[in-house]
Specification:
8 strands, 2 domains, 5-stranded mixed sheet, alpha/beta, 197 residues
């Protein structure tokens, strides 16, 4: 392991705390991961070689998903985060609860998806009327988790994140000049030290 990838004791503890919060066993953490070719994946799709094997966890509620992968409502209340999502959606009509997606209009389905993202990544109180319909349409769900102490994306390589919704936990991520990370799925990353070379 190179010196640049060593975490301070404080950052190492944050990394370990983050793993524990997400139910990721330290035995599932890979020490060092380096991309190996032009295209590399973090994926739980069958037949796709993933740099880090996915650890799948069942998520049963919207609030559980928000706690694991979203932004805390407290961050909005304290002014740490600014409102930045679809929080101006019309209130969801309770009479529409229980309707399958094919029984709703395109606009209603789009609003449910916007409310879902806002609930997770924004101020959930702004879209609370959608909570029941979101549960009906999306839960339970499977979340793919990935963890490594150190991840390096080499120059000329891309790391593609796809498959199920994902949570990734890293101590250090180093992206060499000409390397990149592409997200093709909703993903929440916690990185203690991000290095761009």
């Amino acid at each position: 392991m190179s010196v640049k990838n060593k975490l301070t004791p404080e950052l190492k503890q944050r990394f370990l705390d983050s793993l524990e919060k997400h139910g990721i066993s330290q035995t599932k953490v890979i020490a060092n991961v380096v991309t190996t070719g032009p295209k590399n994946y973090l994926s739980d799709r069958p037949g796709v070689g993933s740099l880090i094997p996915a650890n799948k966890i069942a998520i049963h509620t919207l609030d559980e998903l928000k706690a694991l992968a979203g932004n805390s409502d407290d961050d909005y209340a304290k002014g740490v985060m600014q409102v930045h999502l679809h929080e101006d959606l019309p209130a969801w009509k309770k009479s529409k609860n229980g309707h399958a997606p094919d029984k709703l209009s395109v606009e209603e389905n789009e609003n449910i998806v916007k409310a879902f993202k806002t609930y997770i990544y924004g101020d959930s109180a702004k879209v609370a009327s959608y909570k029941d319909i979101i549960h009906q349409h999306f839960f339970p769900m499977t979340l793919a988790t990935y963890a490594a102490e150190n991840l390096t994306v080499k120059s000329g390589h891309v790391l593609i994140v796809d498959g199920s919704k994902a949570v990734a936990k890293f101590g250090t991520v180093t992206v060499e000049q000409g390397g990149s990370i592409s997200y093709e799925v909703d993903a929440s990353w916690t990185v203690q030290s991000m290095i761009f070379e």
